[in-house]
């Protein structure tokens, strides 16, 4: 008697067990594709979608005296849907005069602790590791690797808006966009 090989299995007459296994495999494949395709889209599409630019309403330009740094809570112009509430964003604003502003991201560039502005010392202080920045955001002391990050801004109808966050070098020149 000859040995049976795997090729001989396909020539066997159909049995109830093989029929049920085939039907269950087909049903499982259909369920997996019906559930798997939307799940794959749910996880993959956000990575492919281009980020929309979200602006924050900082306030009227006349609220910011020239030469002063002021901490404000900016309101997002787009809100999240229920059940989440879109929180305001803290920003330091310096009015340089002539329609020029510097909007500082509130987190230290070392480990991300929120910085404080001290008007008497004209310095930003980071409570973590003693980071100190001048009124232009340059590092004066401590371990921060670069100056404070900034927001792009625009002025429309006398209202100041903050946009994306970007990094600057020691000369306070744009280097790259910051990804939050």
User: What value does the average pLDDT take?
Assistant: 85
Radius of gyration: 29 Å
CATH top level of the largest domain is Mainly Beta
Largest sheet: 6 strands, antiparallel, barrel
What is the number of strand segments?
11
Number of domains: 2
Helical element count?
2
Query: Could you give the distance between the termini?
Result: 72 Å
Q: How do the SSEs run, as a string of H and E?
A: HHEEEEEEEEEEE
- Name the structural class: alpha+beta
The CATH level-2 architecture of the largest domain is identified as 3-layer Sandwich
CATH topology of the largest domain, anyone?
Rieske Iron-sulfur Protein
Strand content: 25-35%
Look at the structure and name the CATH superfamily of the largest domain. Answer: Rieske [2Fe-2S] iron-sulphur domain
What is the overall shape?
elongated
Major sheet: order of its strands? Answer: 1-2-3-4-9-10
Uncertain stretches of 5 or more adjacent residues? none
**Fraction of helical residues:** 10-25%
């Amino acid at each position: 008697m000859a040995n049976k090989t795997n090729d001989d299995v396909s020539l066997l007459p159909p049995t109830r067990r093989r029929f049920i296994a085939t039907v269950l495999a087909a049903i499982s494949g259909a369920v997996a594709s019906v559930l798997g395709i939307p799940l794959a889209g749910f996880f993959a599409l956000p990575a492919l979608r281009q980020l929309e630019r979200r602006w924050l309403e900082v306030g009227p330009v006349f609220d910011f005296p020239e030469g002063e740094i002021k901490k404000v809570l900016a309101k997002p112009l787009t809100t999240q849907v229920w059940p989440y509430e879109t929180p305001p964003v803290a920003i330091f604003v310096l009015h340089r005069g002539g329609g020029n502003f510097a909007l500082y991201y509130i987190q230290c560039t070392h480990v991300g602790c929120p910085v404080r502005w001290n008007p008497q010392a004209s310095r930003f202080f980071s409570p973590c590791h003693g980071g100190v920045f001048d009124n232009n955001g340059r590092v004066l002391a401590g371990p921060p690797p670069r100056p404070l990050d900034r927001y792009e801004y625009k002025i429309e109808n006398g209202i100041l808006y903050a946009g994306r966050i970007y990094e600057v070098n020691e000369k306070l020149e744009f280097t790259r966009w910051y990804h939050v």
